[in-house]
Known about the structure:
alpha+beta, six-stranded antiparallel sheet, 21% helix, elongated
Amino acid sequence: MPGRHRKPTAPSRTAQRAATGSFAALVATGAFVPGAAQADQLPFTEAQTIELPRVEVAPPAEPVELPAFTVEVQPGDYLFAIAQRNGLTSWEPLYEENREIIGDDPDHIEVGQVLTSTPAGRHRAPAPVPPPTEPTPEVQDNDVVVQESLPPVPPAAAPAPEPAPFAGVGAARAVEIALAQIGDPYVWAATGPNSFDCSGLVQFAFGGAGIALPRVSSAQAQAGVPVSRANLQPGDLVAFYSPVSHIGIYIGNGQIVHAPTSGDVVKVVDLDSMPTPTAMRRVA
């Protein structure tokens, strides 16, 4: 019959637009032929608004205020380790609270110092920083650390000069022993035989000569009898700073042998290159 071979009529564009808009429905109804390139067969959809669920954000937790604490510095301690042990995340507040005790260098704290931290002190504004100055070397002892104004000294050790006449046999032997240590490294609190701090070198040299001296520079500067600079003889002790915190041995010809500071070595220097002596003592 003629009607059986009639070509199907394509859905009108209006019918396509009335479709649900889903891809599967458009294919099922013939409104969209997969793979067809005709623009009028692209699916038609209306704009939709999607509402996302609201996410509740918890308010930030209140910071926990750490209680006050007091600690005594132990061997091997440093500020960051003390701060960590007591719950602080930074060493700066602890340093600012105890700056009068520690001094201007937070890298050097002394065994036995008592440091305190309080909630109020941790929020204190830091002390003003002084304008930068030319860096100067330090002279260290096991007692204190001080800053001095010395010209740069090359690390190479100068050859030992010929000593002048000695005050005594013990003094002569102490000078010989001290000069034999030239080039050995400075190590804080070391007393030999391969490294020294300033008072450790003095004690080692005189101990080798059979003369017992105290361990620290402040006590060594009170041993024996005082002498004037004009009457210095090889083997006399020459101490520096007030209170005394550095010491060396006079070897004659206006020179001393000493262990200067960390990163340096036992060496001979001109006495005039050092700060003004605060004590000169004859112990042998």
